[in-house]
Amino acid sequence: MSIACALLVFTANAQTPAPITFGQVDLKDLEMTSYSKDTAAVAVVLADYGDYFYNFQDNVPRAIYRRHVRIKILKKEGFKYANIKIPFYFPNDNTKAEAFNKIEATTWNLEKGDIVSYSLTPKDFFENKESKDVYYKTFTFPKVQEGSVLEYTYELTSGMWYELRTWEFQKNDIPTIWSELRAEIPAYFIFNITLHSSIPLKVQETKDGENNFLRGSIRDPYLSYRFAMEHLPALKTEPFITTLEDYRSKLDFELSATNFPDQSRVDYSKTWESLNETLLTNDYFGKQIKKFDEAEKLALNLKAQYKNDTLALLKAAYKLVQSTMQWNEQEGVFTTITNLDKTYEKRTGNAAEINLILIRLLRECGFDANPFILSTRDNGQLSDLVLLNRFNYTIAHVALNGKDIFLDATSKLMPMGLLPLNCMNERGRLVVRKNSRWVKIPANITSRKVTLVTMSILPNQQLKGEINVSFAGHDAVSFRKKVLTKGEASYSSEYKKSHSEHNIESISLLNIDSLDNVPQLQVKATLNEAYSELGDRIYFTPTLGLAIDEQPFKSLTRAYPIDYTVPQEETYSAQFIIPEGYAIEEMPKNDAIALPKQGGRFDFRVEVLDNLIKIQSKINLKKVVYMSDEYPFLREFFNRIIAKHTEQIVLKKK
Fold this sequence. Notes:
Elements: E1 4-7, H1 27-31, E2 43-57, E3 60-73, E4 83-89, E5 98-111, E6 114-119, E7 126-129, E8 134-140, E9 149-158, E10 167-168, E11 176-186, E12 189-197, E13 203-212, E14 219-232, E15 250-258, E16 266-267, H2 272-280, H3 294-305, H4 310-324, E17 326-327, H5 340-346, E18 348-349, H6 351-364, E19 368-374, E20 393-400, E21 403-407, E22 427-430, E23 437-440, E24 447-458, E25 462-472, H7 474-486, H8 488-498, E26 503-510, E27 520-527, E28 532-534, E29 537-540, E30 562-563, E31 568-577, E32 582-586, E33 591-594, E34 600-609, E35 612-621, E36 625-626, H9 631-645, E37 649-653
Parallel strand pairs: 2-11, 17-18, 24-31
Antiparallel strand pairs: 1-12, 2-3, 3-9, 4-8, 5-6, 5-9, 7-8, 10-15, 11-14, 12-15, 13-14, 15-16, 19-20, 19-22, 20-21, 22-23, 24-25, 25-27, 26-27, 28-29, 29-37, 30-36, 31-35, 32-37, 33-34, 34-35
């Protein structure tokens, strides 16, 4: 991953004027018709300026956030950026609540050579509740047209002085010309400031100063920081990534200590050891494992059935919880109640509750089972900072014969040893009394799809035969989920409708309910218009549209790594019976392509035996992550695969 993560070090510098002033829009910005560094951009952030500082009311600190944003609308598709949502926190605890001190917004247009402004009034701003404690201030700019410049500014007071907001330099979908944050922090607060970015800072400055904060006429020191980046590309979703947040250029603030006048210094930075102890003694985590008494009886029954087979006992315990408990689709590190017996009675729970039940049962069965916390892929990757709120999921870990076994009983379609794809996010923390540590989450089970085809070439452009598709690894989980979600009858019916141009005789779905066997789709059919005829020749593509025939990577370049989550393998094997009276005139040649650094391989083989043409195509992507500098090779790899898959076989009458 090309993201740098480092604690910033600063040098002294003088104060610089703010980059923009509200109400003073340049004519050149209104006349701007495109952004030279991204001519396809529908809008561009001209400037995004933030100013963080502290105020004290009755000696209680308040964090103040000022923000000034200016956006240029370049095309009609950019009109959506006239709709603004600003999040703010409003819990029942008023000491933590956030409130707007002021907010202004104006649309600027160039009309018949004149600069015209349209400002919002107080009644044009609304507040909408997003969740229990999170609200949004929303508004829409008026009179928006191509060429408009939109600007808004606000000031927000927050009681959560200990959690300064993350500053995001990059925006989704549109580029940013200038992004700048300034922060004036009294020496009472010591923050670790961390930059996550593959783009270097344009400005990195600090300034020492003194001001009146808490002690009347006594001036106390502060540090004034300034950070800026310029010409930031839009952050755009691409296939095969974790989450965009892993690649966004941003600044994080972590409070490490407070040092108020006439008080002892208080350290907030935790160690992994202290975090581990906090979890083990928490009523909604470590203590919960002891509160599942039903596990003793369940374990006795299991041990009686599997006296001499350790692996079978492990599998049986996993299946018992997996089949008994229903996941409520809620993630989480902690339980929501303080008694797992009640959770088991209800037969439903969140991820932590189900997997802590599994851990207790495994312990009663004699296994070394412990909680394992992680961050799911859509939640983002973990850093070395000791921050519990970066974790959002709990699974079970078993140490058996020197091996790490990871178990998640939330999905009824996941065989033992296979984790949901969303949990496959590099590493997590093993929470155990001794030797708590980072453990790598292995991505060693390959997802496989195998397609076997046997066809006879009939007159009237028809092929008749069988198609058998089998799945393994996460491909098997995905296939089972599709079938079971729709129901076997509905899935078969929809398959027939989507292939209505063919005469499908039968569809068989095998091993859908058995996680121990390979699920299969078997189809007997007559394919219509499956080849073309010209004179005394037959032309057909032997992959029949059942192998990869479209480039998955459309862009010429790519900024992010390609993350497949697990290794991938796809095999297509076909046999075609040559009709009597015909001979092969032309067919694809054998080919083999290898990616650099043993990253993968494509093998294509053609064999003729009497009246049979045998085709085999095998794609093997061995790596889980391909770095952005490998992208050109991977893209060309698929170009050559697609070219080979679209080559034709030509038969000629003897």
